[in-house]
């Protein structure tokens, strides 16, 4: 074994995910790993070196120094925040607007950095109105030494990318079962960070983490005693929320017949008919009644239309089909 390289720990029996669920918080995820290792006859550390690195960083993931530095109110543009106010409480300064960027680094580590809204990596603001901070600057290092981190880095978790290989390769090795718990714990770190920042800042996720789970192949309530089967991570992706929303909504539009009960062509035909309908008698219908009238027209055509489904169809068609919005 080369010097300095840690070898996998031998285990006496497979590691089981029984008792692990997607709703576990960060503390519960870490506690579950400790119980699972004890059941498998392993003490102190996970069996695979990269899992040990991830678990070590999860024990205290948020950088409290960076979070404290964000609360230096004298770096805020207080006059702008007071002028903008906080909704109906005009006397209370608005929350400073910030952007959060999540990423997997080139070395496979998972990190988060913050920036004033619309400010890039080099401190240049893309908004002509400026940002809510005065003379903000990102420092690549907070001190002297290779181990110091950037001034705006909020957490840094080593070797998370190795856990993702389990999802890609469907690794059958029982030692890799803990990767599902570690990835879930990383997602809980992001949730915890959002909750902390939301008290003081107007947060926008430039990139966000999206996680999907499923239960095992035997079903959700497969065990004889009726308890839920363990949660398995099937997708763990960092993506621009706006790009993801657009892709999902375009897919929803393409699958409108299955999701809303009527096809896009049927909806457009009924909409155009109701929009251009000429009534020989009576006053002109009020614009705010258009949705209700459209629902009645679609029901006459024996389409499964409700107010909520029609409003959703109007939104999707107006946004993605390059038509004149319905007024």
User: How do the SSEs run, as a string of H and E?
Assistant: HHHHEEEHHEEEHHHHH
Largest sheet: 4 strands, mixed
Q: Bin the helical content.
A: 25-40%
Unreliable stretches: 1-5, 216-226
Structural class: alpha+beta
Query: What order do the strands of the largest sheet run in, or round the barrel if closed?
Result: 3-2-1-4
* Average of per-residue pLDDT values: 86
* Topology, number of strands: 6
- Radius of gyration, Cα only, in angstroms? 26 Å
Q: What is the CA-CA span between the terminal residues?
A: 72 Å
- How large is the count of helical segments? 11
Shape: flat
Please tell me about this protein's structure:
The structure is a single chain. The chain is α+β, with helices and mostly antiparallel strands. It is built from 11 helices and 6 strands. The chain has helices at residues 26-39, 49-58, 64-70, 78-84, 160-169, 178-198, 241-254, 256-260, 264-275, 290-300, 307-320, and strands at 97-104, 110-116, 153-157, 202-205, 208-215, 231-239. The strands form 2 sheets. The chain has a 4-stranded mixed β-sheet with strand order 3-2-1-4. It has a two-stranded antiparallel sheet with strand order 5-6. Helix 2 (49-58) runs parallel beside helix 6 (178-198). The longest helix has 21 residues, at 178-198. The chain is flat and about 80 Å long. The N and C termini lie far apart (72 Å). Mean pLDDT is 86; it is low at 1-5 and 216-226.
